Amino acid sequence: MAEPPLLLRSDPDPSWLPAGSRADVMLGEPPADEPTGLVRLMVLRGNEFFCMMREPDGRLDIPTRHVAEGEDPHDTAHALASVVLGPDAEVRPWGYVRNFVPTPSNDYPWPSPVACFTVWRPMSGAPVVPGLWCARIELGTRHWWPLAEQAARGPHPDKSGSQSCTNKVVADFQSRRDLDNSGIGNYICISTNRE
Predict the structure, then answer these.
(1) For residues 42 and 77, what is the distance between their CA atoms, to the nearest angstrom?
(2) Mean pLDDT of all residues in the chain?
(3) CB distance 142 to 61 below 8 Å
(4) Where is this region: Disordered (predicted)?
């Protein structure tokens, strides 16, 4: 059985979502029954991240692809990786941002009440397409940034042995939905201190 996702951070009422919403940054793979809107590919080189121009606004971001309705996000992630890293690229899910939007506004484009935006990491390989290597200064405000900080710390906790938390352990929940009304506050973090 796969490890349950770990909550890295929870932002109640973030400015980019409709009022009364929440954005959670989770380490792990989202439940299969929660729809995915975008897949992203996090390729690291030391402390830098491979970036491309994002359409339609032209901002730099890690490579991203929209998941069409009815499409398996695994297939979308593998298609994105084959373009960025070559046809033999292998990737695995690293984490995701989960929007919980109980009352969507008319201009909110994603499924509700839940939409996930996954970040994948390559097992190996280097980009085969043009792009730029960017540092934190250019990317630190992205919603997925806590996943980048976790990547800089080392292996995924489900592969790295015992963990200790500096705040509250959230790994024992039965279902992600258990947290929807839990009142868990901002900046819950999972420490990667090995024991």
Answers:
(1) 11
(2) 78
(3) yes
(4) 1-31
Alpha-carbon gap, residue 47 to 18, rounded angstroms: 33
- Give residue 53's identity as a one-letter amino acid code: M
Helical residues (DSSP H) of 57-129, grouped into ranges: 73-85
| SS percent in the chain: helix, strand, coil, step 5 | 15, 30, 55
Alpha carbon of residue 140 to chain centroid: 14
What lies within 8 Å, CB to CB, of 171 at 6+ separation is 3, 4, 6, 163, 190
Instruction: Supply the pTM of this predicted model.
Output: 0.77
Mean pLDDT of 163-192: 30
Task: Judge contact between 107 and 21, C-beta under 8 A.
Answer: no
> What separation, in Å, do the N-terminal and C-terminal C-alpha atoms of the chain show?
24
**6-179 has CATH 3.90.79.10 classification:** yes
